[in-house]
Amino acid sequence: MAERPVSFADGSLLAPEDQLVVRGGTPLHGEIRVRGAKNLVSKAMVAALLGETPSTLYDVPAIRDVEVVSGLLNLHGVHVTAGPDGRITLDPSNVESANVDEINVHAGSSRIPILFCGPLLHRLGHAFIPDLGGCRIGDRPIDFHLDALRAMGATVEKTPQGLDITAPAGLRGTKLTLPYPSVGATEQILLTAVRAEGITELRNAAVEPEICDLIAVLQKMGAIITIHTDRVIRIEGVPRLRGYRHRPLPDRLETASWACAALATRGDVTVRGARQADLMTFLNVFRSVGGEFEVDDSPTDGGIRFWHPGGDLRAVALETDVHPGFMTDWQQPLVVALTQARGLSIVHETVYENRLGFTDALVSMGATIQLYSDCLGSTPCRFGQRNFRHSAVISGPSKLQAADLVIPDLRGGFSHFIAALAAEGTSRVFGVNLIDRGYEDFGAKLAALGATVEGPGMPSSTGPVRLAAGGPVEAAR
Ligand SMILES: CC(=O)N[C@H]1[C@@H](OP(=O)(O)OP(=O)(O)OC[C@H]2O[C@@H](n3ccc(=O)[nH]c3=O)[C@H](O)[C@@H]2O)O[C@H](CO)[C@@H](O)[C@@H]1O
Ligand SMILES: C=C(OP(=O)(O)O)C(=O)O
């Protein structure tokens, strides 16, 4: 393929070592394994800061977000060491303030730093929070977090370097209602209220499986947290917490991604470690589209097999929503599969205002997708009448053609890969580093499923992030 320069929207050229060449047209076939959920592991690591004794997490994936949180914890005196099989231990015996410049090395790399507020306020009376990163899929403000912290007694000062947070009179429980069931804000309140004085009653809380698992972690540490009906969580503050030992719930986002990859490429993929209970809503949609799956519940090596049974896939209409609705992080990979379904599918994205931009690339590959700023679903959402292109109509099936693709965000990037694998011809995918944030051993898994992918950006079989037994958690490049 002739070399063509590819650049970001701002004109800067993409690094050649960050690209992969994908030869499409081969169905994915085989087995891969998922480990602990990205969206729980990183929060459980932060929770370890609250304990007076060391914590152990099992089955931790070697992904960039784990590396970023490890780096931040290390800066605050928490000794993070990796053992075999994804085990990490976190020793918070010597928690200390970190240097602002050193913290800022991690600015813009993940959303997790905002969750350090409560634990650092309890341990040190002060927290410095760098600018956040994470996927650019909307504005992603943190007003709910800061309002809740202030209501519990914190003082927040915005500085040119980041946020300076103190709690001069300590933190106390209170009654809080979230304007929207935000996952991060719910976690913020949990991690702050567990050691605040008195009782916190949180209304309109998010109740995603990862949040319930974080509550399980905190309960192991000595917290008293009750989930009531109607999104109400009651937290009784306790004076001290101890370390935990925890095996996280498996990553239901990665599982769904590979399931969609099987569907879009007319393949057959078994995801070992996947758990049905956390995927009920996804599995219903997968079946409605025409995908087949089989759950293997065996205690040691269970998982779910996903496959395309042949014939046409069926169009569907769906809205993303908070749990137990169809999760927004499942949406992008599913849309690629829907380009192969016969008829008109409708997707109404109600969680993020800007999570459909990745479809422009699919259109350049031959998909027929029209975006609308209207709410094309049964429920008007926060983004209606506000000029956000947050509804999509997908008309299929479309024959996809190879293209040059620039990864926009984590799930959008995975979706671009699926599209390239399903397409005719050879695509170049740029910005593959972003994938490491949430998919462990991505290159090795693609290879295990028979994908023809090569190039300087192909991660090594041990993955780009290392959890070396006995050593610290660190980046391998
Ligand atoms: C690391 C992690 O766990 N990330 C997940 C988490 O992100 P995250 O916790 O950032 O997502 P939230 O649930 O907080 O965001 C949901 C919506 O609430 C809005 N909002 C949120 C906080 C706030 O202070 N103000 C505000 O307006 C956001 O802009 C968004 O429109 O939940 C999302 C929704 O399931 C998932 O897509 C992400 O994978
Ligand atoms: C949106 C996601 O993650 P984050 O909140 O870490 O950006 C995701 O995992 O799809």
Q: Describe it for me?
A:
Helix content is 27%, strand content 23%. By secondary structure, it is an alpha+beta fold. The chain has two domains: 16-34 and 250-461, Enolpyruvate transferase domain (UDP-n-acetylglucosamine1-carboxyvinyl-transferase, Chain, Alpha-beta prism); 38-246, Enolpyruvate transferase domain (UDP-n-acetylglucosamine1-carboxyvinyl-transferase, Chain), CATH 3.65.10.10. Strands 17, 18, 19, 20 and 21 form a five-stranded mixed sheet that branches. The longest helix has 13 residues, at 209-221. The radius of gyration is 22 Å and the shape is globular. Residues 460-464 have low confidence and may be disordered. The protein binds uridine-diphosphate-N-acetylglucosamine and phosphoenolpyruvate. Uridine-diphosphate-N-acetylglucosamine binds at residues 39, 111, 138-145, 180, 182-185, 206, 208, 328-329, 351-352.
